[in-house]
Amino acid sequence: MNITKxxxxxxxxxxxxxxxxxxxxxxxxxxxxCFKSLAQGGxxxxxxxxxxxxxxxxxxxxxxxxxxQKAVNDCHEHGGGRIEIPTGIFVTGTIRLYSxxxxxxxxxxxxxxxxxxxxxxxQKDFGFSGPGAGGRTGILVAHDEQNISLTGPGRINGRGKxxxxxxxxxxxxxxxxxxxxxxxxxxxxxxxxxxxxxLWKGNYESRPGVMIIFSNCKRIYMDQVKFQESPNWTVxxxxxxxxxxxxxxxxxxxxxxxxxxxxxxxxxxxxxxxCFIQAGDDAIAVVSSSSLVVSNCVLHSRSCxxxxxxxxxxxxxxGDLLFNxxxxxxxxxxxxxxxxxxGDMKNMTFSNIxxxxxxxxxxxWGHGEPIHISSLPGLGSKKAGSISQVRFSNITAFxxxxxxxxxxxxxxxxDISFDHxxxxxxVSPLNNGYGGNFDLRPVNDISKGIFSHNIPxxxxxxxxxxxxxxxxxxxxxxLPAYFRHAIECRNCDGLNIYGLQEFxxxxxxxxxxxxxxxxxxxxxxxxxxxxxxxxxxxxxxDNMD
Length: 545
Known about the structure:
The protein is mostly beta strands.
Protein backbone atom coordinates (compact mmCIF):
# COMPACT_ATOMS: atom_id res chain seq x y z
CA MET A 1 0.00 0.00 0.00
CA ASN A 2 1.56 3.36 -0.99
CA ILE A 3 1.59 6.40 1.26
CA THR A 4 -1.34 8.16 -0.42
CA LYS A 5 -3.58 5.09 -0.19
CA UNK A 6 -2.60 4.56 3.44
CA UNK A 7 -3.50 8.15 4.33
CA UNK A 8 -6.82 7.77 2.51
CA UNK A 9 -7.48 4.64 4.57
CA UNK A 10 -6.59 6.46 7.80
CA UNK A 11 -8.92 9.32 6.96
CA UNK A 12 -11.79 7.02 6.04
CA UNK A 13 -11.48 5.17 9.36
CA UNK A 14 -10.72 8.13 11.63
CA UNK A 15 -13.92 7.71 13.63
CA UNK A 16 -12.64 4.37 14.94
CA UNK A 17 -9.26 5.58 16.20
CA UNK A 18 -10.49 5.96 19.76
CA UNK A 19 -13.46 3.59 19.79
CA UNK A 20 -11.62 0.49 18.65
CA UNK A 21 -8.10 1.24 19.86
CA UNK A 22 -6.55 0.62 16.46
CA UNK A 23 -5.03 4.00 15.77
CA UNK A 24 -1.56 2.97 16.97
CA UNK A 25 -1.53 -0.05 14.66
CA UNK A 26 -2.57 2.17 11.79
CA UNK A 27 0.18 4.63 12.65
CA UNK A 28 2.79 1.86 12.64
CA UNK A 29 1.56 0.52 9.32
CA UNK A 30 1.50 4.03 7.94
CA UNK A 31 5.06 4.69 9.13
CA UNK A 32 6.41 1.44 7.73
CA UNK A 33 4.66 2.06 4.44
CA CYS A 34 6.24 5.49 4.20
CA PHE A 35 9.69 4.16 5.09
CA LYS A 36 9.56 1.38 2.52
CA SER A 37 8.17 3.45 -0.31
CA LEU A 38 10.61 6.29 0.20
CA ALA A 39 13.70 4.25 1.01
CA GLN A 40 13.24 2.37 -2.24
CA GLY A 41 12.22 5.46 -4.18
CA GLY A 42 13.77 7.01 -7.24
CA UNK A 43 15.96 9.44 -5.33
CA UNK A 44 18.57 6.73 -4.73
CA UNK A 45 20.33 6.04 -7.99
CA UNK A 46 23.70 4.31 -8.26
CA UNK A 47 25.80 7.28 -9.42
CA UNK A 48 27.84 8.97 -6.66
CA UNK A 49 29.06 12.58 -6.73
CA UNK A 50 31.62 13.36 -4.03
CA UNK A 51 31.90 17.10 -3.47
CA UNK A 52 35.69 16.85 -3.03
CA UNK A 53 35.93 16.03 -6.72
CA UNK A 54 34.31 19.37 -7.51
CA UNK A 55 36.75 21.45 -5.47
CA UNK A 56 35.09 21.55 -2.05
CA UNK A 57 37.53 22.12 0.82
CA UNK A 58 36.84 20.67 4.30
CA UNK A 59 38.81 23.30 6.20
CA UNK A 60 35.95 25.03 8.01
CA UNK A 61 36.84 28.38 6.41
CA UNK A 62 36.55 28.24 2.63
CA UNK A 63 33.06 28.98 1.29
CA UNK A 64 32.14 25.96 -0.81
CA UNK A 65 28.77 27.03 -2.21
CA UNK A 66 29.89 26.95 -5.85
CA UNK A 67 31.67 23.59 -5.56
CA UNK A 68 28.77 21.87 -3.81
CA GLN A 69 26.23 23.34 -6.23
CA LYS A 70 28.37 22.12 -9.14
CA ALA A 71 28.21 18.56 -7.77
CA VAL A 72 24.44 18.87 -7.32
CA ASN A 73 23.99 20.23 -10.83
CA ASP A 74 26.09 17.44 -12.34
CA CYS A 75 24.00 14.87 -10.50
CA HIS A 76 20.82 16.53 -11.74
CA GLU A 77 22.00 16.71 -15.34
CA HIS A 78 22.75 12.98 -15.32
CA GLY A 79 19.32 11.98 -14.04
CA GLY A 80 19.97 11.84 -10.31
CA GLY A 81 22.09 9.94 -7.81
CA ARG A 82 23.87 10.46 -4.52
CA ILE A 83 25.80 13.58 -3.52
CA GLU A 84 28.30 12.63 -0.83
CA ILE A 85 29.50 15.02 1.86
CA PRO A 86 32.61 13.33 3.33
CA THR A 87 34.21 13.87 6.72
CA GLY A 88 35.18 17.48 7.32
CA ILE A 89 33.64 20.91 7.83
CA PHE A 90 32.32 22.45 4.62
CA VAL A 91 31.18 26.08 4.85
CA THR A 92 28.40 26.95 2.43
CA GLY A 93 25.63 29.35 1.53
CA THR A 94 22.38 28.38 -0.18
CA ILE A 95 22.39 25.13 -2.19
CA ARG A 96 19.49 24.19 -4.49
CA LEU A 97 18.48 20.53 -4.62
CA TYR A 98 16.70 18.83 -7.52
CA SER A 99 14.58 15.75 -8.12
CA UNK A 100 15.82 12.17 -7.82
CA UNK A 101 18.81 12.76 -5.58
CA UNK A 102 20.08 11.90 -2.14
CA UNK A 103 22.29 14.28 -0.19
CA UNK A 104 24.24 12.04 2.18
CA UNK A 105 26.37 13.34 5.04
CA UNK A 106 28.90 10.76 6.18
CA UNK A 107 29.93 10.35 9.81
CA UNK A 108 32.02 13.39 10.75
CA UNK A 109 30.67 15.46 7.86
CA UNK A 110 29.39 18.97 8.62
CA UNK A 111 27.68 21.43 6.32
CA UNK A 112 28.35 24.70 8.14
CA UNK A 113 26.41 27.85 7.36
CA UNK A 114 28.35 30.78 5.97
CA UNK A 115 28.83 33.77 8.26
CA UNK A 116 28.20 36.11 5.31
CA UNK A 117 24.49 36.92 4.99
CA UNK A 118 24.88 37.65 1.28
CA UNK A 119 25.67 33.96 0.69
CA UNK A 120 22.00 33.17 1.36
CA UNK A 121 19.56 33.68 -1.50
CA UNK A 122 16.06 35.08 -1.18
CA GLN A 123 12.90 32.98 -1.30
CA LYS A 124 11.62 35.10 -4.17
CA ASP A 125 14.61 33.93 -6.23
CA PHE A 126 13.01 30.47 -6.20
CA GLY A 127 9.45 31.61 -6.80
CA PHE A 128 7.92 31.21 -3.33
CA SER A 129 7.54 33.13 -0.08
CA GLY A 130 6.23 32.69 3.43
CA PRO A 131 8.13 30.31 5.69
CA GLY A 132 10.37 31.58 8.44
CA ALA A 133 11.31 34.98 9.76
CA GLY A 134 12.46 37.29 6.98
CA GLY A 135 12.70 36.65 3.26
CA ARG A 136 15.97 34.78 2.84
CA THR A 137 16.60 31.07 2.51
CA GLY A 138 19.11 29.02 4.45
CA ILE A 139 21.46 26.18 3.52
CA LEU A 140 19.28 23.80 1.46
CA VAL A 141 16.30 24.62 -0.79
CA ALA A 142 14.13 22.55 -3.11
CA HIS A 143 11.18 23.97 -5.06
CA ASP A 144 8.89 22.07 -7.45
CA GLU A 145 10.93 18.86 -7.03
CA GLN A 146 10.29 15.24 -6.02
CA ASN A 147 12.11 12.15 -4.77
CA ILE A 148 14.72 13.80 -2.56
CA SER A 149 16.49 12.15 0.38
CA LEU A 150 18.57 13.81 3.08
CA THR A 151 20.48 11.26 5.13
CA GLY A 152 23.05 11.14 7.92
CA PRO A 153 24.74 10.48 10.23
CA GLY A 154 26.46 13.79 9.47
CA ARG A 155 25.41 17.26 10.60
CA ILE A 156 24.13 20.56 9.25
CA ASN A 157 25.08 23.51 11.47
CA GLY A 158 23.50 26.93 10.91
CA ARG A 159 25.87 28.78 13.30
CA GLY A 160 22.86 30.72 14.53
CA LYS A 161 24.61 32.62 17.31
CA UNK A 162 26.50 34.61 14.67
CA UNK A 163 23.20 36.24 13.65
CA UNK A 164 22.26 37.24 17.21
CA UNK A 165 23.29 39.62 19.94
CA UNK A 166 23.47 36.86 22.54
CA UNK A 167 23.76 39.29 25.48
CA UNK A 168 20.75 41.46 24.48
CA UNK A 169 17.11 40.55 25.08
CA UNK A 170 13.97 41.13 23.05
CA UNK A 171 11.18 43.37 24.27
CA UNK A 172 7.75 42.89 22.73
CA UNK A 173 4.78 45.16 22.05
CA UNK A 174 2.11 42.45 21.73
CA UNK A 175 0.78 42.90 25.28
CA UNK A 176 0.27 45.68 27.84
CA UNK A 177 1.67 45.27 31.36
CA UNK A 178 -1.29 47.10 32.89
CA UNK A 179 -3.48 44.04 32.23
CA UNK A 180 -1.13 41.62 33.98
CA UNK A 181 -1.24 40.61 37.63
CA UNK A 182 2.16 42.23 38.23
CA UNK A 183 1.40 45.38 36.20
CA UNK A 184 4.61 47.43 35.78
CA UNK A 185 6.68 44.71 37.42
CA UNK A 186 5.71 42.08 34.87
CA UNK A 187 8.85 40.78 33.11
CA UNK A 188 10.99 42.99 35.37
CA UNK A 189 14.69 42.12 35.30
CA UNK A 190 14.68 41.41 39.05
CA UNK A 191 12.82 38.18 38.27
CA UNK A 192 15.48 37.12 35.76
CA UNK A 193 15.66 36.92 31.98
CA UNK A 194 17.87 33.86 31.61
CA UNK A 195 15.47 32.14 29.20
CA UNK A 196 15.91 34.78 26.44
CA UNK A 197 14.87 35.42 23.71
CA UNK A 198 17.86 37.33 22.39
CA LEU A 199 17.98 40.01 19.68
CA TRP A 200 19.02 39.36 16.09
CA LYS A 201 21.68 41.52 14.46
CA GLY A 202 20.71 44.02 11.79
CA ASN A 203 17.15 44.22 10.54
CA TYR A 204 14.58 41.44 10.49
CA GLU A 205 15.25 40.58 6.83
CA SER A 206 19.01 40.34 7.02
CA ARG A 207 19.57 37.13 8.96
CA PRO A 208 19.71 33.74 7.19
CA GLY A 209 16.32 32.17 6.53
CA VAL A 210 14.88 28.72 7.19
CA MET A 211 17.83 26.32 7.21
CA ILE A 212 16.12 23.62 5.10
CA ILE A 213 13.12 24.42 2.85
CA PHE A 214 11.03 22.10 0.69
CA SER A 215 8.44 24.06 -1.30
CA ASN A 216 5.84 22.34 -3.49
CA CYS A 217 7.75 19.05 -3.32
CA LYS A 218 6.71 15.39 -3.25
CA ARG A 219 8.26 12.26 -1.77
CA ILE A 220 10.79 13.69 0.65
CA TYR A 221 12.75 11.42 2.98
CA MET A 222 15.00 12.37 5.92
CA ASP A 223 16.84 9.84 8.03
CA GLN A 224 19.45 10.01 10.80
CA VAL A 225 20.69 13.51 10.01
CA LYS A 226 21.45 16.03 12.77
CA PHE A 227 20.66 19.76 12.62
CA GLN A 228 22.30 22.27 14.96
CA GLU A 229 22.25 25.98 15.80
CA SER A 230 19.64 27.15 13.29
CA PRO A 231 19.33 30.96 13.13
CA ASN A 232 15.70 30.61 12.01
CA TRP A 233 13.24 27.77 11.51
CA THR A 234 15.19 24.57 11.03
CA VAL A 235 13.16 22.52 8.54
CA UNK A 236 10.06 23.78 6.72
CA UNK A 237 7.70 22.08 4.29
CA UNK A 238 5.42 24.32 2.23
CA UNK A 239 2.73 22.91 -0.10
CA UNK A 240 4.45 19.51 -0.03
CA UNK A 241 3.31 15.90 0.35
CA UNK A 242 4.50 12.35 0.94
CA UNK A 243 7.02 13.30 3.62
CA UNK A 244 8.82 10.84 5.89
CA UNK A 245 11.16 11.95 8.68
CA UNK A 246 12.85 9.33 10.87
CA UNK A 247 15.59 9.45 13.47
CA UNK A 248 16.33 13.15 13.01
CA UNK A 249 18.00 15.19 15.77
CA UNK A 250 17.60 18.96 16.09
CA UNK A 251 19.69 20.79 18.69
CA UNK A 252 19.08 24.53 18.50
CA UNK A 253 20.17 27.24 20.90
CA UNK A 254 17.21 27.71 23.24
CA UNK A 255 17.69 31.49 23.46
CA UNK A 256 17.38 32.13 19.71
CA UNK A 257 13.83 33.21 18.75
CA UNK A 258 11.99 31.63 15.81
CA UNK A 259 14.34 28.64 15.80
CA UNK A 260 11.47 26.19 15.28
CA UNK A 261 12.21 22.51 14.81
CA UNK A 262 10.01 21.22 11.96
CA UNK A 263 7.18 23.25 10.39
CA UNK A 264 4.51 21.94 8.01
CA UNK A 265 2.47 24.47 6.02
CA UNK A 266 -0.27 23.37 3.61
CA UNK A 267 1.26 19.89 3.46
CA UNK A 268 -0.13 16.36 3.72
CA UNK A 269 0.68 12.64 3.96
CA UNK A 270 3.38 13.01 6.61
CA UNK A 271 5.11 10.84 9.21
CA UNK A 272 7.60 11.96 11.84
CA UNK A 273 9.10 9.25 14.04
CA UNK A 274 11.94 8.60 16.49
CA CYS A 275 13.13 12.20 16.55
CA PHE A 276 14.70 14.40 19.23
CA ILE A 277 13.92 18.09 18.77
CA GLN A 278 15.23 20.95 20.91
CA ALA A 279 14.01 24.30 19.62
CA GLY A 280 14.04 27.95 20.68
CA ASP A 281 10.46 28.13 19.46
CA ASP A 282 7.90 25.45 18.56
CA ALA A 283 9.40 21.97 18.25
CA ILE A 284 6.80 20.72 15.75
CA ALA A 285 4.35 23.13 14.08
CA VAL A 286 1.46 21.99 11.88
CA VAL A 287 -0.41 24.68 9.96
CA SER A 288 -3.17 24.08 7.40
CA SER A 289 -1.92 20.51 6.98
CA SER A 290 -3.52 17.06 7.12
CA SER A 291 -2.96 13.30 7.23
CA LEU A 292 -0.05 13.47 9.66
CA VAL A 293 1.29 10.93 12.16
CA VAL A 294 3.96 11.85 14.74
CA SER A 295 5.23 9.09 17.03
CA ASN A 296 8.04 8.18 19.41
CA CYS A 297 9.55 11.65 19.69
CA VAL A 298 11.14 13.70 22.48
CA LEU A 299 10.50 17.46 22.31
CA HIS A 300 12.00 20.42 24.18
CA SER A 301 10.73 23.90 23.37
CA ARG A 302 10.73 27.53 24.50
CA SER A 303 7.22 27.74 23.05
CA CYS A 304 5.01 24.73 22.17
CA UNK A 305 6.27 21.19 22.03
CA UNK A 306 3.47 20.58 19.52
CA UNK A 307 1.67 23.48 17.86
CA UNK A 308 -1.32 23.18 15.56
CA UNK A 309 -2.45 26.44 14.01
CA UNK A 310 -1.52 30.14 13.67
CA UNK A 311 -2.79 29.82 10.10
CA UNK A 312 -1.49 33.26 9.24
CA UNK A 313 -1.12 32.79 5.47
CA UNK A 314 -4.61 31.57 4.54
CA UNK A 315 -7.91 30.16 5.78
CA UNK A 316 -7.14 26.57 4.82
CA UNK A 317 -8.29 23.68 7.01
CA UNK A 318 -6.26 21.28 9.14
CA GLY A 319 -7.24 17.79 10.21
CA ASP A 320 -6.61 14.08 10.52
CA LEU A 321 -3.64 14.50 12.85
CA LEU A 322 -2.33 11.80 15.19
CA PHE A 323 0.35 12.29 17.86
CA ASN A 324 1.33 9.21 19.88
CA UNK A 325 3.99 8.19 22.40
CA UNK A 326 5.64 11.57 22.82
CA UNK A 327 7.60 13.20 25.65
CA UNK A 328 7.57 16.99 25.98
CA UNK A 329 9.87 18.36 28.68
CA UNK A 330 11.06 21.71 30.08
CA UNK A 331 8.81 23.56 27.65
CA UNK A 332 6.72 26.72 27.79
CA UNK A 333 3.64 24.94 26.49
CA UNK A 334 3.07 21.27 25.87
CA UNK A 335 0.38 21.07 23.19
CA UNK A 336 -1.12 24.21 21.63
CA UNK A 337 -4.05 24.35 19.20
CA UNK A 338 -4.65 27.88 17.90
CA UNK A 339 -7.30 29.10 15.48
CA UNK A 340 -6.64 32.71 14.46
CA UNK A 341 -8.37 32.93 11.06
CA UNK A 342 -11.43 31.40 9.47
CA GLY A 343 -11.41 27.72 8.53
CA ASP A 344 -11.88 24.40 10.29
CA MET A 345 -9.43 22.45 12.41
CA LYS A 346 -10.72 19.02 13.34
CA ASN A 347 -10.05 15.37 14.02
CA MET A 348 -6.91 15.46 16.13
CA THR A 349 -5.78 12.71 18.50
CA PHE A 350 -3.09 13.07 21.18
CA SER A 351 -2.33 9.83 23.03
CA ASN A 352 0.28 8.45 25.42
CA ILE A 353 2.00 11.77 26.00
CA UNK A 354 4.16 12.90 28.95
CA UNK A 355 4.34 16.65 29.45
CA UNK A 356 6.46 18.84 31.72
CA UNK A 357 6.02 22.60 31.33
CA UNK A 358 7.10 25.65 33.30
CA UNK A 359 6.89 29.42 33.30
CA UNK A 360 9.66 31.03 31.27
CA UNK A 361 11.16 34.45 31.72
CA UNK A 362 11.26 36.85 28.79
CA UNK A 363 9.13 37.50 25.73
CA UNK A 364 8.17 33.93 24.81
CA TRP A 365 4.51 33.19 24.02
CA GLY A 366 2.90 30.92 26.59
CA HIS A 367 2.60 30.61 30.37
CA GLY A 368 3.42 27.01 31.23
CA GLU A 369 0.16 25.42 30.05
CA PRO A 370 0.34 21.67 29.43
CA ILE A 371 -2.49 22.04 26.89
CA HIS A 372 -3.83 25.22 25.30
CA ILE A 373 -6.78 25.45 22.89
CA SER A 374 -8.09 28.81 21.70
CA SER A 375 -10.10 30.23 18.81
CA LEU A 376 -9.79 34.00 18.62
CA PRO A 377 -9.28 36.54 15.81
CA GLY A 378 -5.57 36.95 15.17
CA LEU A 379 -3.67 39.89 13.79
CA GLY A 380 -5.45 41.20 10.70
CA SER A 381 -8.48 38.93 11.15
CA LYS A 382 -12.02 39.81 12.22
CA LYS A 383 -13.24 36.23 12.68
CA ALA A 384 -11.88 32.92 13.88
CA GLY A 385 -12.77 29.44 12.65
CA SER A 386 -13.61 26.29 14.56
CA ILE A 387 -11.71 23.62 16.47
CA SER A 388 -13.54 20.31 16.91
CA GLN A 389 -13.16 16.57 17.41
CA VAL A 390 -10.02 16.73 19.54
CA ARG A 391 -9.14 13.70 21.69
CA PHE A 392 -6.60 13.54 24.53
CA SER A 393 -5.96 10.14 26.09
CA ASN A 394 -3.39 8.81 28.54
CA ILE A 395 -1.81 12.18 29.27
CA THR A 396 0.52 12.69 32.24
CA ALA A 397 1.54 16.28 32.95
CA PHE A 398 3.62 18.14 35.55
CA UNK A 399 3.02 21.81 34.89
CA UNK A 400 3.33 25.23 36.50
CA UNK A 401 -0.01 26.27 35.03
CA UNK A 402 -3.27 24.62 33.99
CA UNK A 403 -5.06 23.53 30.84
CA UNK A 404 -6.68 26.50 29.04
CA UNK A 405 -9.52 26.45 26.48
CA UNK A 406 -11.03 29.76 25.33
CA UNK A 407 -13.23 30.66 22.35
CA UNK A 408 -14.40 34.02 21.04
CA UNK A 409 -17.99 32.77 20.77
CA UNK A 410 -20.10 29.64 21.17
CA UNK A 411 -19.57 26.85 18.68
CA UNK A 412 -15.97 27.68 17.80
CA UNK A 413 -14.53 25.03 20.16
CA UNK A 414 -16.59 21.86 20.44
CA ASP A 415 -16.39 18.12 20.95
CA ILE A 416 -13.23 18.02 23.08
CA SER A 417 -12.49 14.96 25.21
CA PHE A 418 -9.98 14.13 27.94
CA ASP A 419 -9.65 10.46 28.84
CA HIS A 420 -7.26 9.29 31.59
CA UNK A 421 -5.45 12.55 32.26
CA UNK A 422 -3.17 12.89 35.31
CA UNK A 423 -2.24 16.53 35.96
CA UNK A 424 0.06 17.77 38.74
CA UNK A 425 0.29 21.53 39.31
CA UNK A 426 3.80 22.41 40.50
CA VAL A 427 5.28 25.52 42.13
CA SER A 428 7.24 27.93 39.91
CA PRO A 429 10.13 30.12 41.10
CA LEU A 430 8.80 32.70 38.61
CA ASN A 431 5.30 32.98 40.10
CA ASN A 432 5.97 36.42 41.60
CA GLY A 433 7.16 37.88 38.30
CA TYR A 434 5.06 36.01 35.74
CA GLY A 435 2.43 33.83 37.41
CA GLY A 436 -1.33 34.24 37.65
CA ASN A 437 -1.85 35.30 34.04
CA PHE A 438 -3.36 33.91 30.86
CA ASP A 439 -1.48 34.36 27.57
CA LEU A 440 -3.57 34.27 24.38
CA ARG A 441 -1.04 35.76 21.95
CA PRO A 442 -1.15 36.21 18.99
CA VAL A 443 -4.49 38.02 19.26
CA ASN A 444 -6.02 41.25 17.94
CA ASP A 445 -7.19 42.57 21.31
CA ILE A 446 -4.08 43.63 23.22
CA SER A 447 -5.98 43.40 26.50
CA LYS A 448 -6.15 39.65 25.86
CA GLY A 449 -2.47 39.31 25.03
CA ILE A 450 -1.38 38.65 28.62
CA PHE A 451 -3.87 39.37 31.40
CA SER A 452 -4.44 38.58 35.07
CA HIS A 453 -6.52 35.48 35.79
CA ASN A 454 -6.91 32.83 38.45
CA ILE A 455 -5.38 29.52 37.41
CA PRO A 456 -7.62 26.44 37.55
CA UNK A 457 -6.14 23.06 36.71
CA UNK A 458 -8.52 23.06 33.73
CA UNK A 459 -10.28 26.19 32.48
CA UNK A 460 -12.89 26.29 29.70
CA UNK A 461 -14.80 29.30 28.38
CA UNK A 462 -17.39 29.01 25.58
CA UNK A 463 -16.59 25.37 24.92
CA UNK A 464 -19.35 23.00 23.78
CA UNK A 465 -19.48 19.23 24.25
CA UNK A 466 -16.59 18.95 26.69
CA UNK A 467 -16.12 15.37 27.89
CA UNK A 468 -13.81 14.45 30.80
CA UNK A 469 -13.36 10.83 31.84
CA UNK A 470 -11.08 9.66 34.65
CA UNK A 471 -9.02 12.77 35.37
CA UNK A 472 -6.85 13.40 38.43
CA UNK A 473 -5.59 16.78 39.65
CA UNK A 474 -2.80 17.12 42.22
CA UNK A 475 -1.92 20.47 43.80
CA UNK A 476 1.65 20.73 45.09
CA UNK A 477 2.22 22.46 48.40
CA UNK A 478 3.03 26.19 48.44
CA LEU A 479 1.05 27.38 45.42
CA PRO A 480 -0.20 31.00 45.43
CA ALA A 481 -3.86 31.62 46.27
CA TYR A 482 -4.77 32.36 42.63
CA PHE A 483 -4.56 28.63 41.86
CA ARG A 484 -8.25 27.77 42.35
CA HIS A 485 -10.63 25.01 41.24
CA ALA A 486 -9.66 21.72 39.67
CA ILE A 487 -12.10 22.54 36.86
CA GLU A 488 -13.69 25.89 36.03
CA CYS A 489 -16.15 26.15 33.14
CA ARG A 490 -17.85 29.32 31.98
CA ASN A 491 -20.51 29.55 29.29
CA CYS A 492 -20.10 25.88 28.43
CA ASP A 493 -22.81 23.61 26.98
CA GLY A 494 -22.93 19.83 27.01
CA LEU A 495 -20.40 19.33 29.83
CA ASN A 496 -19.88 15.73 30.88
CA ILE A 497 -17.49 14.75 33.70
CA TYR A 498 -17.33 11.11 34.75
CA GLY A 499 -14.57 10.53 37.27
CA LEU A 500 -12.55 13.42 38.71
CA GLN A 501 -10.19 12.98 41.68
CA GLU A 502 -8.59 16.03 43.30
CA PHE A 503 -5.60 15.67 45.66
CA UNK A 504 -4.76 18.49 48.09
CA UNK A 505 -1.63 18.82 50.29
CA UNK A 506 -2.40 17.26 53.67
CA UNK A 507 -1.36 20.24 55.80
CA UNK A 508 -2.76 23.02 53.60
CA UNK A 509 -5.84 24.83 54.95
CA UNK A 510 -6.66 26.57 51.64
CA UNK A 511 -9.01 24.23 49.82
CA UNK A 512 -8.35 25.89 46.43
CA UNK A 513 -12.01 26.78 46.05
CA UNK A 514 -14.63 24.27 44.98
CA UNK A 515 -13.35 21.28 43.04
CA UNK A 516 -15.64 22.18 40.13
CA UNK A 517 -16.96 25.70 39.50
CA UNK A 518 -19.57 26.25 36.78
CA UNK A 519 -20.64 29.77 35.76
CA UNK A 520 -23.42 30.29 33.23
CA UNK A 521 -23.92 27.64 30.60
CA UNK A 522 -26.16 24.75 29.68
CA UNK A 523 -26.43 21.12 30.66
CA UNK A 524 -23.79 19.57 32.91
CA UNK A 525 -23.61 15.91 33.91
CA UNK A 526 -21.19 15.41 36.83
CA UNK A 527 -20.51 11.95 38.26
CA UNK A 528 -17.89 10.42 40.58
CA UNK A 529 -16.34 13.71 41.73
CA UNK A 530 -13.98 13.27 44.69
CA UNK A 531 -11.46 15.21 46.76
CA UNK A 532 -8.78 14.01 49.17
CA UNK A 533 -10.32 16.41 51.72
CA UNK A 534 -13.70 14.94 52.72
CA UNK A 535 -14.89 18.34 54.05
CA UNK A 536 -14.34 20.21 50.81
CA UNK A 537 -17.25 21.50 48.76
CA UNK A 538 -17.08 19.63 45.48
CA UNK A 539 -19.23 21.72 43.15
CA UNK A 540 -20.60 25.23 42.78
CA UNK A 541 -23.03 26.25 40.06
CA ASP A 542 -23.60 29.93 39.37
CA ASN A 543 -26.28 31.27 36.98
CA MET A 544 -26.61 27.99 35.12
CA ASP A 545 -29.50 27.39 32.71
